[in-house]
Amino acid sequence: MNRDRGGGRGAFLAAGRLSREFALLKRQGGVPYVDICPDIDDLLTWHFVLHDLPADSPYHGGVYHGKLVFPPNYPFAPPSIFMLTPSGRFSVNQRLCMSMSDFHPESWNPSWRLETLVTGFLSFMLDAADPATHGSISTSHAQRRRLALQSFAENKRHKNFATMFPHFVDDSKFNPSRGFSLSGATLAAPAAAGAAPSQLPFSLPSFGGAALLRNAAALFFPRADSGGEPAAGRQECSTPEEKRSEGSGEGGRGGAGRLREGLAAWEPGSAARLSSPAIAVVILVAASLAALLNRWIV
């Protein structure tokens, strides 16, 4: 079993943190519509299944498999997020751009947890406005309904899915015309396209902050307006590799340069006076605060 994915002690600590988050989530009763399970071979990869989604969504009766791939320095860096089951909403096995994924490490908050991630993802997927992001796709209501009914068979073909989620491959809980229901109950007829969505029967986690409580989808996924441009305050989504390439090119700003710019924003004209020792002191203080935060969280 690959327990550290090359990250050494840091990866071991990250895996321990995730295990504690999972245990806490189970004690709290989990998240409605979501099942979570660690990967069989890698404790920094966690799988989730969205199921029994509301009847007024095109995903009703579908079973949607996704995964979170955490870095060895979690919780101080965000995970990658993938959808593995065709849904008509997301590209398959492609990293999704969200404010809490590795596309936007500057937005990451170390207090966010497994519950925060899957709740935000679910909120975004069920958003009737279909906000766009890198990795999302646009398809018709009818196509999403077809994919929902096909998802049960699709997941059976995925390696290790039945081992991790045996209750989601039970043929007795699948109706070819209505889809899958974990409880085995007869599913309601799906709503027609354009029907008003119902409210989710749970509240968003309070530890995500006021912005998360106000609008989970807006926090987790940078929206685009009608003209296709990023919403105010959001940067264009680019892959982490593209960001590293931009930062390392001629004229690219390193960490010290960005730090100077940030401090200059707080005190205009201070960038020129910021010396290397001052930068070292700021970094040392930030690292100390991060260590204290980690001890408080875990």
TrEMBL record:
Entry keyword Membrane: yes
Region (Disordered): 226-258
Keywords for this protein: Membrane, Transmembrane, Transmembrane helix
Domain of life (superkingdom): Eukaryota
Pfam family, one: UQ_con
Record bears the keyword Thylakoid: no
Listed Gly residues bias regions: 248-257
Matches recorded under SMART domains: UBCc (SM00212)
Cited InterPro entries: Ub_conjugating_enzyme, UBC, UBQ-conjugating_enzyme/RWD
Sequence intervals crossing the membrane: 278-297
Coiled-coil annotated spans: none
SUPFAM superfamilies named among the record's database cross-references: UBC-like
Residue ranges constituting the UBC core domain according to the UniProt record: 13-165
Protein name: Ubiquitin-conjugating enzyme subfamily protein
